Structures are given as structure tokens and as C-alpha cells.
Amino acid sequence: MKALILTGGQGLRLRPFTCQTPKPLLPVANLPFLAHQFALLRRHGIREAVVATAYRSEAFPRTFGDGRRFGLRIRYACEKSPLGTGGAVRNSAAALDPAEAFLVLNGDVLHDLDLTALLRAHRAKRAEASIALVRVKDPTLYGLVETAKDGRILRFIEKPSLDEISCRTVNAGAYVFEPSVVGRIPPGKPYSLERGLFPSLLEAGRPFYGCVTGGYWMDIGTVEKYLQVHLDILCEAGAGAALFRKARLRRRGAFLWEAKARLAADAAHEGDGHVLVGAGASVAPLVRFSGSVCIGPGCVVERGAWLSDCVILGRSRIGRGARLSGCVVGHACVVEPNASIGPGRALGDGSVVKQYSQL
Ligand code: GDD
Ligand code: MG
């Protein structure tokens, strides 16, 4: 079975980080985000993926090549201009098997949904299309999916208004489609799965099912969620556990470090969570950590800095005595000595924060 991964969104809500890097390639725990999805596919026995690109397409093959390093065979289907989630599926048809059902994943959700159970349910119901469902507090941000007791989908409302909320189950961004679904999508023009295909399947009375499989699930669409995904992973919750089992990391108490990272022997940690120090990064003496902290490859953290529940992307420098809490620092930033950056702050790549500044 092949998996098609949709990666063409512009990630506007995750600016400034998506100005330079497409969302599916942003590092999550120091790996390009899609690498986590590739690992999930492999855990479910899927060895072939088609990556449907539209925004900064050239960056994807540059990062993943033919996929061998990630244990998959990867092909790319590039849209000249974005065709929407449905148009992307149609545009990828040549790379899919015309006689076999396929899996589709939104390329911006970190999850460990049980794809095998989704596929099993799809086959048992003889469905034409199946959607993995998750329960959330606020369905207005997602595609609301109302099902009958047997899982048959009764209504699909993308980004419902408050008065349209009839349940808490939403589209998790993982589907199984029979090949016939591709023929229902108009070729060569923008088309949405959520606003076009799904309502049309319902109208035509086709066998269209939803399946709640459980597991960790987080859309990385905003800065707040991007940070939260890191905290979850570093707490070894949900999807994070797999990362720690597989990766070759050295470990001492709450500290995990990658190849050629240097961590002073007196580094102190308090609270829950872990500190991940990326390849070639260095942490000077007298640095204190609290909660979960992700330090990207090649970063330098100078003496006496205090880092709490934050993410620092690659090649940034955190000066002496600087204090970071609840924030995300982009690539190649400089936080000068004694500056403090507080909760919710997001520093775009290359930012410089002058000494003693308070953000
Ligand atoms: N190739 C391609 N071309 N991919 C696209 C395009 C396009 O034109 N537009 C969007 N995508 C990709 C995005 O990169 C993302 O991985 C996925 O399709 C979904 O698009 P988003 O823009 O992230 O949609 P959303 O988060 O508002 O809502 C979607 O995801 C929710 C779950 O996170 C919908 O599918 C909702 O129904 C769902 O609940
Ligand atoms: Mg999204």
C-alpha cells in the first residue's frame, strides 16, 4: 500500500518559521517534521510514499531524496500552482497504483494513530473512503464529522460555526481512499477534499465511514502548538516515546544529546521533561534547565543561561545569563547576554535580541 502525504499548505499561522521553511520540513525534536510521519508509516508496514508538494517544492527532494535514509521509497508529485487538498490527490494519480486503495495523510499533524486499524475498518465496511477521527474540545478549527452508530458518516462540515457543532469528533487528517475516489476529483484545477469531495460522497450516498482509533494527535499549525508538540515529545508522551526508543542518543538523567554535542558536567535540571541537545551544539557550565527544552544542532548556550520549556532551532546563540521561557527561537538567532524572552514569543530566523532586552 502507498501513502500520499499532502504538504502544499503555506503554513501562514506558523509564521515567522514558515517564511523560510515549509511547515512539513520544520524541525520537530531536531528532525524534519515529515520524518516522524515516515516513521509512523514504517511502523504500519508502509514502505512507499508519494509527497504532494506545492509550496517550496524543491526543498522536499533536497531534504529526503529517494527516501532510502528514512527506510521508504519516496516519489514527489509537484503542483505548478497549489491545487488544494483534492487537486493534490488527483495530480498524484500517476504515482499511485490504479488498482489499490491508498492512504492519505495531512503533512502537518503529529500523531500515532492506528493506521492498521483504520485500514482494517475500511475493508470490513467495504468503504469507498474512510476518515480517521479524533475528539477535540474545539471543532471550529477542524473538519467536524458526525457519524451513525456503525461509523457511517452523516455530515462533514469543514470549520463549523459554533451553532453547527453537533459532536466533538473531527477529521484527524488521515484517510483511506479506494482508487475510484481519484476519478471523482476534477483534473487540473483547485479542488478541496473537505469542501468538495466529502460533501459529494455524502450526497451520492457512497459508503463513507469514520473510525476513532485513539492515540496521540496534535496539529502543528500554530506557534503555540509547535511548542506544545515539543514539550509532549520531550515528556515522552504519546508519539514521543518512539523517537527515544529509535534514536541513537546519549543519555544522563533528564539530558539527551546527539552526536558531537557538548554538555557541561554541571548542567542542572528541575521539573518534568527532558532536554535534547542537537548535534554539534554546546552548553557551557552553570546553565540551568527547567521542564522540556529542545536545542537545535550547532547552537551555543553560554554560561549561566536559564532555559525553561522552550525550543531553539539550529545554529542559534544564547548569551551569558539570558533567560528563555515558553518561547520558540528560530534558526541562526543571537540572544545577547542577559536578555529575557517570555512565554508565547516567536523569534524568526536570524533575529538578534540586544543585551538586557526583555521580550
Ligand atoms: N499538495 C498540496 N496542495 N497540499 C496542500 C494544499 C495544496 O494546494 N493545500 C493544503 N495542503 C496540505 C497542507 O500542507 C496540510 O498538510 C494539509 O493539506 C491540510 O491543509 P491545512 O491548510 O493544514 O488545513 P487545516 O489544518 O486548516 O485543516 C485540515 O486539517 C485538519 C486536521 O489538522 C482539514 O483536513 C480538516 O478537516 C482537519 O480537521
Ligand atoms: Mg493543518
Q: If you had to describe this structure to a student in words, what would you say it looks like?
A:
The protein is of the alpha/beta class. It has 2 domains: 2-219, Spore Coat Polysaccharide Biosynthesis Protein SpsA, Chain A (Alpha-Beta Complex), CATH 3.90.550; 248-353, 3 Solenoid (UDP N-Acetylglucosamine Acyltransferase, domain 1), CATH 2.160.10. It has helices at 33-43, 59-64, 84-91, 115-124, 180-183, 193-203, 223-234, 240-246, and strands at 2-6, 27-28, 31-32, 48-53, 73-78, 102-106, 109-111, 129-135, 143-147, 153-158, 169-177, 208-212, 217-219, 250-252, 255-257, 262-263, 268-270, 275-277, 282-283, 288-295, 300-301, 306-312, 317-318, 323-325, 328-329, 334-335, 340-341, 346-347, 352-353. The strands form 6 sheets. Strands 14, 15, 17, 18, 20, 22, 24, 25, 27 and 28 form a 10-stranded mixed β-sheet that branches. The protein has a 7-stranded mixed β-sheet with strand order 5-4-1-6-11-8-12, with helices on both faces. The protein has a 6-stranded parallel β-sheet with strand order 16-19-21-23-26-29, with no helix packed on it. Helix 2 links the parallel strand 4 and strand 5. It is elongated. Bound molecules: guanosine-5'-diphosphate-alpha-D-mannose (GDD) and magnesium ion. Magnesium ion (MG) binds next to loops.
